[in-house]
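for the writeup, i need someone to sanity check this before i put it in the appendix. the sequnce is what the collaborator sent (i think, or maybe the updated version? ugh). structure was predicted straight from it, no edits. if anything looks off just tell me and ill rerun, i have time this weekend
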Amino acid sequence: MSSAALPAAPRRYDLDWIRVGAFFLLILYHVGMLYVSWDFHVKSPRIVEALQPLMMLTSPWRLTLLFLISGAATRFMVDGFAAKAAHAGWRLAGSRTLRLLPPLVFGMLVIVPPQSYFEIVQALTGLGVPDAAHSPYLQDFWVKYATASGGWCDETDCLTTPTWNHLWFVAYLLPYGLIVALLVGLAGGALGPLQRGLERALSGRGLLVWPIVWLAILRLVLAPLFEITHALTDDWYNHALSFSVYLFGFLIARSETLKAGFIRLRQPALILAVLGWAGWALYAWIWRADDAMPPEALRTAMRVVYAVDQWAWIAAILGYGARYLNRGGPVLRYLSAGVFPFYIVHQTVIIVAAWYLMPLRLPLAVEAGLVIAATFAACFLAYEIARRLGWLGLLLGVRPQAAKRPPRAA
C-alpha cells in the first residue's frame, strides 16, 4: 500500500477532542436512560418524560459520529504502518484484533454480567417474586450466564447470555476494521484517488447535501425493514449506517480540503441541526404514546428529518472542532487514552450505582448526580489501574505504551 501521492497531514487534535467529548456525552446519556420511558437494563421508578427531548438532542448522531472518528483513526493507523513497512493490511488486522478482541471477551464475561444480574432481579421483582436477589433462580448466576443455561425469560421476552450489551460498539468495530484491512491489502494504492474523488463530489454544499441524501435513503429503505438489534448477524440497517460512516471517516481523515469544507459550513450546519432536532423532538413528543399511530406520510417525512438532524450535527461538530479544537496537551493525551476503558466500564457502574441508590429515595437531582459522580470516579480508577497492568491492561482497552508515551493523534 502506498499513500505517497498524498501530502502529510498534521495531527488531528480536533478529532481526539471530539472523540473524548462524544464518549463523555454517552455516559450522561446512559444515566438519562434510567429516567426516561425507553427500554433499558434497569429502570428508575421515577420517570421524567420532559427529559426525553434533551436525550434526543444526541441520540440520532452520537454513535454515528463515533464510528466516523473510529474510521479516521484507522486511517492514521494504516498510514503509520505503511510508512514503516509493507503489509499494512496485515498489520492493521493484527492491531485491531489485539486491541478489540480481549476487552470484548473480558467485558462480556466480567464487566457486563452485573448488568444482566440486576436486569433479571428487577424483572423478577416486577413479577412479584419474593426476595428476588436471593431466589434459587439466581444461584450460580455467573455459570448460568456464561454457559447460556439460565433461561432468563419473563412473560414477554427472553434475555440471551452471555451478552455484550453496550459493548456492541466494540463488537462491530472489530469486523469493520478487518474488512478495511482486507481492502487496504487488496487496493491500498487507491486511497489517494478515492480521497480526491470524494473531495470533488463533496465540494461546496455537497458536503452537507450528499451525506444527508445517503442517510435518508438508508432511513427510508432499510430502517423500516430491519430493526436495530445490536446482534451483529441480523442488524442490516445499523451495519449499512455504521460501516458506511466508518468507511467515510477512513477515506476523508487526511483531507485538508474537506476539513476546510466543514469549517466553512459549520454555521449553516448548526442552524440546520437545531431545526432538525426541533422537528424530530416535537414529532416524537406528540406521538410518544405506545399506541400512537402517526400517518404514514408523516412518518416518511420524519425519516428524512432524522437524516438531516443526524448529519447536520455531525458536520457542525466536525466544523467547529476543526476550527477551535486544534491544540493538544497533557489533558488531551491523558483523556484520549482513557476514553476506551471509560466506555468499557461505565454502563455497569451506572446500573450498579443506580440499583443501590434508588431505594434511598433521594431527591432525583441528587440521585442522578451521585450516579454520574460514581461513574466518572470508577472510570478514572479503572483507567489508572489498567495503565499499570502492562499487557493485562488490554483487557480494559489500554495499550502498555499508554502509560509510557503519549497516544497517537486521533
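The CA atoms of residues 76 and 215 lie 25 Å apart. The radius of gyration is 22 Å.
thx in advance!!
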